[in-house]
Amino acid sequence: MIWSQALLVITTLLAILYLTFYTEKNLEWIKTPLIISLAAFALYLTLPLFLHLDNPVYGWLSVISTTLLFVSISALIRELKPLYNRYPVGFSLFPLLILIVYPFISDQEVLRQLLIQILQGGGLLIGLLIVITLLKPVENSIWVLTGIILIAVSYGIYWFIMDLYSLDDWIWQVILAGGLLFSMYYINNIFTYLKQNHFL
User: Fold this and answer.
1) Sign of the CA dihedral 57, 33, 66, 148?
2) Whole-number CA gyration radius for the chain
3) Which of 4, 51, 69, 172 could be a cystine partner for 55, CB 3.0 to 4.6 Å?
4) CB-side exposure of 151: number of CA atoms within 13 Å?
5) Which pTM does this prediction carry?
6) What's the burial of 176, exposed, middle or buried (CB within 10 Å: 0-12/13-18/19+)?
7) Neighbours of 25 (CB within 10 A)
8) Would you write out the chain's pLDDT as a tens digit for each of its 200 residues?
């Protein structure tokens, strides 16, 4: 494990601890999928110490992590709506259907990578749009936006630039670690906004 990968694992674990113990309560339906998503990502990063990189468990961890991120985003979108306009809680679980589809393409490398790429890109885009709409009402949400932009830059480097220019892994890993720190530390401001405005 290179130093930047270790840094990313530590950052992810710190984000999990922060979300678990230092953010607003009564948000489990938003926080729990996000925490499990981050835990799956941390496991994805550490498994190369024990398993060969072609092991199918990597694909599953990547899809599980991204799918649970979508569940968390869906729950957040629901809570941002007025009470009379909210969809049922169960609708937030619809992204889990991806886990039913995944086994049919898990042995096809190109389709598997494309699915993960689309899911991650879609999650980033939705997260970016949510934070932009909250820039004015939520204090310091500019830092969450900064974090998501850094994560998006890391995403772009990993999927589109790495192979093209033979860049080292530490570049996207350090940028992603910075994005996680910004996003997780200030995301509690969004949670506080939900609570103060009686969305919960």
Assistant:
1) negative
2) 17
3) 51
4) 23
5) 0.89
6) buried
7) 9
8) 688 899 999 999 999 999 999 888 878 889 999 999 999 999 999 987 777 767 888 889 999 999 999 999 999 988 888 777 778 878 888 999 999 999 999 888 889 899 999 999 999 999 999 989 888 888 778 888 899 999 999 999 999 888 767 678 889 999 999 999 988 878 888 888 887 775 54
